[in-house]
Amino acid sequence: MTATVVKDEHYMGAIFERIQGSIRDAGLCLADVTGGNPNVMWEAAYGHALGKQVIFIAQGTADQIPFDVRHNNCILYDLSSDALATLQRKIAETVRSVLEGQTSDLQILRQIVLPNSIKGASSSFVVAIRPPCPIGQPAELAKAGERDQQ
After folding, report:
1. Staple 36 to which of 40, 60, 66, 129, CB 3.0 to 4.6 Å?
2. Which pTM does this prediction carry?
C-alpha cells in the first residue's frame, strides 16, 4: 500500500480534481483533523460518502478534536519522538486491521458507545443508542416484541 499526498506530486490540472480522484482510488483514507482544517474535513467526509474507511488522527487532547468527528475513534498524538513512534505503530495496526477486515461487532459497538478519542474528554457528553434489534435476538423476535408493546 502506498500513501498519496497530492500536494507533493507533480501534475497538470486542478488540485481539487486530483484530490477527488485520489480519494476515489484509495483503499482507505487517513485524515489528520488537528485544528479542524476545512479541506481535511471535506476530504474525510468525501471519503466517508464513498464508503471508504477513514482513520482519524489528531494532535492534542480529546477536547481539541473537531466536534464533527469526535464520535469517531481518533488516534491522538504529540510531536515527541516516542509519541511519533507510537503513532506510527497505531496507524500501522489500524491499517492492517481494516485491510484484514478484523472489525468485530463488539469492536464496532465499543466504537459507537465510547470511542477512545472521547474517553479523556473533560467536557460532558451524552451517548444514546437504540439498536434496531436487541443484541443476540433475531430481528423477527424484536419486531414481534414491538408489536406486543403497542
Report:
1. 66
2. 0.64
